[in-house]
Amino acid sequence: MEKMEKKKMARRAHCLVLAYPLQGHINPMLQFSKQLEHQGVKITLVTTRFYCNNLKRVPPSIAIETISDGFDQGGPPHDADSHKAFIDRSREVGLESLAELLEKLGRSKDEHVDCVVYDSFFPWALDVVKRFEIVAAVFFTQNMTVNSIYYHVHLGNLQVPLTQHEFSLPALPKLELQDMPSFLLTYAQHPYYLDFFADQFCNIDKADWVLCNTFYELDKEVADWFTEIWPKFRNIGPNIPSMFLDKKYKDDQDYGIAQFESEECLEWLDGKPKGSVVYVSFGSLAMLGERQMEEVACGLKQCSSYFLWVVRASEETKLPKDFEKRSEKGLVVTWCSQLRVLAHEAIGCFVTHCGWNSILETLCLGVPTIAIPHWSDQATNAKLMTDVWKIGIRAPTDEKKIVQGETLKHCIREVMENEEGKGIKSNVMQWKSLALRAISEGGSSYESVIEFSNSIFH
Ligand code: UDX
Question: Which ranges of the sequence are coiled-coil (predicted)?
Answer without folding.
Answer: none
